[in-house]
Amino acid sequence: MDGWGGYNGLVDIGYGHFRVDHSKDKFVRGKAHINGIEGFWGYAKVRLVRFRGMHKQTFLLHLKETEFRFNLRQQNIGRLILKLCRENPLS
To answer: Where are the domains of the chain?
Structure first.
């Protein structure tokens, strides 16, 4: 993850992260890559702009759904959700 100070708050809400020091011409360290977080926010912006605004109370739910979709974007999400519903019925 980028060394920018704006990411400091991620630790406070439970996200572990690594820093990449751009001043030393580092852009990748192991699995830590600056394109990961930038890719997510680009994906989130495109997805969330479709709603043309939302209530503050539902924003985190929309963001978590976006995170779910981003992390599983290589899979068939419809089949995955169906499988989860079958394995965890409401009744």
So the answer is: 5-87
pTM score: 0.55
Q: What single letter denotes the amino acid at residue 89?
A: P
Query: For residue range 31-44, what is the model confidence (pLDDT) as tens digits?
Result: 555 566 778 888 88
Residue 32: name the closest of 20, 22, 21, 16 by CA.
Answer: 20
Instruction: List the beta bridge partners of residue 39.
Output: none
Q: Are 34 and 54 in contact (CB under 8 A)?
A: no
- Helix ranges, 1-91 (H): 9-12, 34-49, 56-71, 77-87
Structure tokens at 10: 């991620």
